[in-house]
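Q: What would this complex look like in 3D?
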Amino acid sequence: MARVASGDEEAFRQLIERHQDRVYGTVVRMMGGAGPEAEEVAQDVFLRVWRSAGTFRGDGKFTTWLMSVTRNQIFTRVGRMKRRADIDAFDPVNAETGESMMENQPERAGLGPSDQLACKELEEAVTAACSQLPDNQRLVVHLRQYEGMEFEEIGQVTGLSLTAVKALMFRARETLKKKLSGYLTASN
Amino acid sequence: MGNQHSSPDQEGLGEGLGNLLGKAPPPRAPSWFAAKTLARLRQEKEEDQKTVSLWMRWRWVWAAGTAAVVAGWILWQKSEPHDPISDRAVFAALDALVEQDEENRWWAGL
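A: Here is my prediction, written as C-alpha coordinates for the whole assembly.
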Protein backbone atom coordinates (compact mmCIF):
# COMPACT_ATOMS: atom_id res chain seq x y z
CA MET A 1 0.00 0.00 0.00
CA ALA A 2 2.91 2.34 0.72
CA ARG A 3 4.10 1.81 -2.87
CA VAL A 4 0.60 2.47 -4.21
CA ALA A 5 0.37 5.64 -2.10
CA SER A 6 3.66 6.83 -3.62
CA GLY A 7 2.17 6.46 -7.13
CA ASP A 8 3.69 3.11 -8.17
CA GLU A 9 1.43 1.82 -10.97
CA GLU A 10 3.02 -1.63 -11.00
CA ALA A 11 2.20 -2.09 -7.31
CA PHE A 12 -1.32 -0.90 -8.05
CA ARG A 13 -1.69 -3.48 -10.83
CA GLN A 14 -0.60 -6.23 -8.42
CA LEU A 15 -3.08 -4.98 -5.83
CA ILE A 16 -5.92 -5.04 -8.40
CA GLU A 17 -5.05 -8.57 -9.53
CA ARG A 18 -4.95 -9.79 -5.95
CA HIS A 19 -8.31 -8.32 -4.93
CA GLN A 20 -10.30 -7.99 -8.17
CA ASP A 21 -12.38 -11.16 -7.68
CA ARG A 22 -13.29 -10.11 -4.15
CA VAL A 23 -14.38 -6.62 -5.18
CA TYR A 24 -16.04 -7.62 -8.47
CA GLY A 25 -17.92 -10.52 -6.84
CA THR A 26 -19.22 -8.25 -4.09
CA VAL A 27 -20.31 -5.58 -6.56
CA VAL A 28 -22.08 -8.12 -8.78
CA ARG A 29 -23.91 -9.71 -5.86
CA MET A 30 -24.94 -6.34 -4.46
CA MET A 31 -26.08 -4.91 -7.79
CA GLY A 32 -28.01 -8.02 -8.74
CA GLY A 33 -26.00 -9.01 -11.79
CA ALA A 34 -22.82 -8.67 -13.83
CA GLY A 35 -22.51 -6.13 -16.61
CA PRO A 36 -20.80 -2.91 -17.64
CA GLU A 37 -22.30 -0.99 -14.73
CA ALA A 38 -20.96 -3.49 -12.17
CA GLU A 39 -17.57 -3.43 -13.88
CA GLU A 40 -17.51 0.36 -13.74
CA VAL A 41 -18.36 0.36 -10.03
CA ALA A 42 -15.60 -2.19 -9.34
CA GLN A 43 -13.18 0.05 -11.26
CA ASP A 44 -14.41 3.05 -9.24
CA VAL A 45 -13.49 1.13 -6.09
CA PHE A 46 -9.90 0.65 -7.22
CA LEU A 47 -9.59 4.24 -8.46
CA ARG A 48 -10.80 5.40 -5.04
CA VAL A 49 -8.19 3.13 -3.43
CA TRP A 50 -5.53 4.75 -5.65
CA ARG A 51 -6.57 8.26 -4.64
CA SER A 52 -7.08 7.46 -0.95
CA ALA A 53 -4.10 5.12 -0.49
CA GLY A 54 -2.35 7.74 1.63
CA THR A 55 -5.21 7.80 4.12
CA PHE A 56 -5.08 4.04 4.81
CA ARG A 57 -3.74 3.45 8.30
CA GLY A 58 -1.89 0.19 8.69
CA ASP A 59 -3.46 -0.58 12.07
CA GLY A 60 -6.54 -2.23 10.47
CA LYS A 61 -6.85 -5.07 7.97
CA PHE A 62 -6.56 -3.95 4.35
CA THR A 63 -9.46 -6.15 3.22
CA THR A 64 -11.76 -4.54 5.81
CA TRP A 65 -10.82 -1.08 4.51
CA LEU A 66 -11.19 -2.26 0.91
CA MET A 67 -14.65 -3.66 1.63
CA SER A 68 -15.66 -0.37 3.28
CA VAL A 69 -14.65 1.49 0.12
CA THR A 70 -16.52 -1.11 -1.95
CA ARG A 71 -19.64 -0.75 0.16
CA ASN A 72 -19.60 3.04 -0.14
CA GLN A 73 -19.20 2.93 -3.91
CA ILE A 74 -21.98 0.35 -4.29
CA PHE A 75 -24.45 2.18 -2.07
CA THR A 76 -23.73 5.50 -3.79
CA ARG A 77 -24.33 3.96 -7.22
CA VAL A 78 -27.38 1.93 -6.17
CA GLY A 79 -28.88 5.05 -4.57
CA ARG A 80 -28.31 7.00 -7.77
CA MET A 81 -29.80 4.19 -9.86
CA LYS A 82 -32.86 3.99 -7.63
CA ARG A 83 -33.33 7.73 -7.98
CA ARG A 84 -33.11 7.42 -11.73
CA ALA A 85 -35.51 4.47 -11.45
CA ASP A 86 -33.64 2.60 -14.11
CA ILE A 87 -32.67 -0.33 -11.91
CA ASP A 88 -35.11 -2.50 -13.89
CA ALA A 89 -33.36 -1.56 -17.11
CA PHE A 90 -30.06 -3.00 -15.84
CA ASP A 91 -28.54 -4.98 -18.70
CA PRO A 92 -26.36 -7.89 -17.60
CA VAL A 93 -24.59 -8.05 -20.95
CA ASN A 94 -21.12 -6.80 -21.79
CA ALA A 95 -21.61 -3.62 -23.84
CA GLU A 96 -18.45 -4.20 -25.85
CA THR A 97 -18.57 -7.90 -26.61
CA GLY A 98 -22.32 -8.46 -26.31
CA GLU A 99 -21.61 -11.59 -24.28
CA SER A 100 -23.40 -12.50 -21.11
CA MET A 101 -21.04 -11.82 -18.22
CA MET A 102 -22.83 -14.32 -16.02
CA GLU A 103 -20.82 -16.94 -17.88
CA ASN A 104 -17.71 -15.88 -16.00
CA GLN A 105 -18.56 -18.21 -13.17
CA PRO A 106 -15.90 -20.39 -11.52
CA GLU A 107 -15.48 -23.57 -13.52
CA ARG A 108 -17.49 -26.66 -12.69
CA ALA A 109 -14.89 -29.14 -13.83
CA GLY A 110 -15.87 -32.75 -14.11
CA LEU A 111 -19.64 -32.22 -14.13
CA GLY A 112 -21.90 -33.80 -16.71
CA PRO A 113 -24.47 -31.76 -18.70
CA SER A 114 -27.39 -32.58 -16.38
CA ASP A 115 -25.33 -31.73 -13.28
CA GLN A 116 -24.22 -28.48 -14.91
CA LEU A 117 -27.86 -27.64 -15.63
CA ALA A 118 -28.82 -28.39 -12.02
CA CYS A 119 -25.90 -26.26 -10.86
CA LYS A 120 -27.01 -23.38 -13.08
CA GLU A 121 -30.57 -23.63 -11.80
CA LEU A 122 -29.34 -23.64 -8.21
CA GLU A 123 -27.11 -20.63 -8.87
CA GLU A 124 -30.01 -18.73 -10.38
CA ALA A 125 -32.25 -19.60 -7.44
CA VAL A 126 -29.58 -18.51 -4.92
CA THR A 127 -28.86 -15.30 -6.85
CA ALA A 128 -32.58 -14.50 -7.07
CA ALA A 129 -33.14 -15.22 -3.37
CA CYS A 130 -30.14 -13.07 -2.38
CA SER A 131 -31.13 -10.22 -4.68
CA GLN A 132 -34.50 -9.99 -2.96
CA LEU A 133 -32.85 -9.35 0.41
CA PRO A 134 -32.55 -5.72 1.58
CA ASP A 135 -29.15 -4.19 0.71
CA ASN A 136 -27.69 -4.36 4.22
CA GLN A 137 -28.75 -7.98 4.75
CA ARG A 138 -27.36 -9.01 1.36
CA LEU A 139 -24.03 -7.36 2.15
CA VAL A 140 -23.79 -9.05 5.55
CA VAL A 141 -24.57 -12.47 4.03
CA HIS A 142 -22.03 -11.95 1.25
CA LEU A 143 -19.23 -10.80 3.52
CA ARG A 144 -19.83 -13.64 5.95
CA GLN A 145 -20.44 -16.41 3.45
CA TYR A 146 -18.09 -15.61 0.58
CA GLU A 147 -15.45 -13.40 2.16
CA GLY A 148 -15.31 -15.33 5.43
CA MET A 149 -15.29 -12.16 7.49
CA GLU A 150 -15.88 -12.10 11.23
CA PHE A 151 -18.92 -10.23 12.54
CA GLU A 152 -16.67 -7.55 14.09
CA GLU A 153 -15.08 -6.89 10.70
CA ILE A 154 -18.49 -6.80 9.01
CA GLY A 155 -19.51 -4.25 11.65
CA GLN A 156 -16.51 -2.09 10.68
CA VAL A 157 -17.37 -2.35 6.99
CA THR A 158 -21.05 -1.56 7.41
CA GLY A 159 -20.66 0.90 10.28
CA LEU A 160 -23.09 -1.13 12.41
CA SER A 161 -22.83 -2.58 15.91
CA LEU A 162 -22.12 -6.27 16.46
CA THR A 163 -25.71 -6.83 17.64
CA ALA A 164 -27.12 -5.08 14.57
CA VAL A 165 -24.97 -7.19 12.24
CA LYS A 166 -26.08 -10.41 13.92
CA ALA A 167 -29.71 -9.29 13.77
CA LEU A 168 -29.35 -8.62 10.02
CA MET A 169 -27.79 -12.05 9.54
CA PHE A 170 -30.61 -13.70 11.50
CA ARG A 171 -33.29 -12.01 9.39
CA ALA A 172 -31.47 -12.84 6.16
CA ARG A 173 -31.12 -16.48 7.20
CA GLU A 174 -34.84 -16.79 7.93
CA THR A 175 -35.77 -15.22 4.58
CA LEU A 176 -33.31 -17.37 2.63
CA LYS A 177 -34.50 -20.52 4.40
CA LYS A 178 -38.06 -19.80 3.27
CA LYS A 179 -37.09 -18.90 -0.30
CA LEU A 180 -34.70 -21.83 -0.77
CA SER A 181 -36.63 -24.40 1.26
CA GLY A 182 -37.11 -26.63 -1.82
CA TYR A 183 -33.37 -26.82 -2.46
CA LEU A 184 -32.56 -27.24 1.23
CA THR A 185 -34.69 -30.38 1.58
CA ALA A 186 -33.32 -31.72 -1.71
CA SER A 187 -29.70 -31.28 -0.59
CA ASN A 188 -30.43 -32.88 2.78
CA MET B 1 -11.86 -15.68 -2.85
CA GLY B 2 -12.63 -19.27 -2.09
CA ASN B 3 -12.84 -18.30 1.52
CA GLN B 4 -16.28 -19.67 2.09
CA HIS B 5 -17.69 -20.52 5.46
CA SER B 6 -18.68 -24.14 5.01
CA SER B 7 -18.23 -25.17 8.63
CA PRO B 8 -21.25 -25.30 10.92
CA ASP B 9 -21.98 -21.66 11.62
CA GLN B 10 -24.69 -21.22 14.19
CA GLU B 11 -24.54 -17.43 14.15
CA GLY B 12 -24.16 -17.31 10.38
CA LEU B 13 -26.27 -19.04 7.79
CA GLY B 14 -26.14 -22.50 9.35
CA GLU B 15 -24.65 -25.58 7.73
CA GLY B 16 -27.40 -26.42 5.21
CA LEU B 17 -27.91 -22.92 3.90
CA GLY B 18 -24.17 -22.23 3.99
CA ASN B 19 -23.46 -25.30 1.85
CA LEU B 20 -26.23 -24.34 -0.56
CA LEU B 21 -24.91 -20.80 -1.02
CA GLY B 22 -21.39 -22.22 -1.31
CA LYS B 23 -22.52 -23.99 -4.48
CA ALA B 24 -23.36 -20.64 -6.08
CA PRO B 25 -20.24 -18.49 -5.66
CA PRO B 26 -20.20 -14.94 -7.05
CA PRO B 27 -18.56 -14.53 -10.48
CA ARG B 28 -14.86 -13.82 -10.86
CA ALA B 29 -13.64 -10.59 -12.40
CA PRO B 30 -13.16 -10.72 -16.18
CA SER B 31 -9.60 -11.33 -17.35
CA TRP B 32 -9.27 -7.81 -18.77
CA PHE B 33 -10.35 -6.12 -15.56
CA ALA B 34 -6.93 -5.02 -14.24
CA ALA B 35 -5.77 -3.77 -17.64
CA LYS B 36 -8.98 -1.83 -18.19
CA THR B 37 -8.84 -0.27 -14.71
CA LEU B 38 -5.24 0.86 -15.27
CA ALA B 39 -6.19 2.29 -18.67
CA ARG B 40 -8.98 4.25 -17.03
CA LEU B 41 -6.60 5.49 -14.35
CA ARG B 42 -4.19 6.77 -17.02
CA GLN B 43 -7.02 8.38 -18.95
CA GLU B 44 -8.27 10.19 -15.83
CA LYS B 45 -4.73 11.32 -15.01
CA GLU B 46 -4.42 12.70 -18.54
CA GLU B 47 -7.73 14.54 -18.24
CA ASP B 48 -6.65 16.02 -14.88
CA GLN B 49 -3.40 17.22 -16.47
CA LYS B 50 -5.33 18.73 -19.38
CA THR B 51 -7.59 20.63 -16.97
CA VAL B 52 -4.58 21.93 -15.02
CA SER B 53 -2.76 22.99 -18.19
CA LEU B 54 -5.93 24.72 -19.46
CA TRP B 55 -6.10 26.66 -16.20
CA MET B 56 -2.43 27.52 -16.44
CA ARG B 57 -2.71 28.64 -20.08
CA TRP B 58 -5.62 30.94 -19.38
CA ARG B 59 -4.52 32.01 -15.90
CA TRP B 60 -3.98 35.65 -16.93
CA VAL B 61 -7.46 35.81 -18.40
CA TRP B 62 -8.98 34.28 -15.24
CA ALA B 63 -6.93 36.63 -13.05
CA ALA B 64 -7.88 39.71 -15.11
CA GLY B 65 -11.57 38.70 -15.09
CA THR B 66 -11.56 38.15 -11.34
CA ALA B 67 -9.76 41.48 -10.76
CA ALA B 68 -12.28 43.29 -12.98
CA VAL B 69 -15.22 41.80 -11.07
CA VAL B 70 -13.66 42.70 -7.69
CA ALA B 71 -12.84 46.25 -8.84
CA GLY B 72 -16.37 46.70 -10.21
CA TRP B 73 -17.88 45.52 -6.97
CA ILE B 74 -15.70 47.90 -4.94
CA LEU B 75 -16.62 50.84 -7.17
CA TRP B 76 -20.30 49.99 -6.97
CA GLN B 77 -20.08 49.81 -3.19
CA LYS B 78 -18.40 53.25 -3.11
CA SER B 79 -21.04 54.87 -5.33
CA GLU B 80 -23.87 53.74 -3.03
CA PRO B 81 -25.08 56.43 -0.58
CA HIS B 82 -23.75 55.28 2.74
CA ASP B 83 -24.77 58.22 4.98
CA PRO B 84 -27.98 57.20 6.65
CA ILE B 85 -30.43 59.94 7.68
CA SER B 86 -30.01 60.50 11.39
CA ASP B 87 -32.93 60.14 13.79
CA ARG B 88 -32.55 63.77 14.83
CA ALA B 89 -33.10 65.03 11.26
CA VAL B 90 -36.21 62.86 10.87
CA PHE B 91 -37.77 64.11 14.11
CA ALA B 92 -36.91 67.74 13.23
CA ALA B 93 -38.70 67.37 9.90
CA LEU B 94 -41.74 65.81 11.58
CA ASP B 95 -41.81 68.60 14.17
CA ALA B 96 -41.70 71.20 11.37
CA LEU B 97 -44.62 69.51 9.61
CA VAL B 98 -46.72 69.46 12.79
CA GLU B 99 -45.87 73.11 13.49
CA GLN B 100 -46.83 74.10 9.92
CA ASP B 101 -50.11 72.22 10.23
CA GLU B 102 -50.94 73.96 13.54
CA GLU B 103 -50.15 77.38 11.98
CA ASN B 104 -52.38 76.66 8.98
CA ARG B 105 -55.24 75.64 11.28
CA TRP B 106 -54.81 78.90 13.36
CA TRP B 107 -54.98 81.04 10.23
CA ALA B 108 -58.00 79.14 9.07
CA GLY B 109 -59.63 79.84 12.43
CA LEU B 110 -60.07 76.22 13.23
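A: To summarize the key features: The mean pLDDT of chain A is 81. Chain A has two domains: 1-104, 108-183.
Q: Very helpful, thank you.
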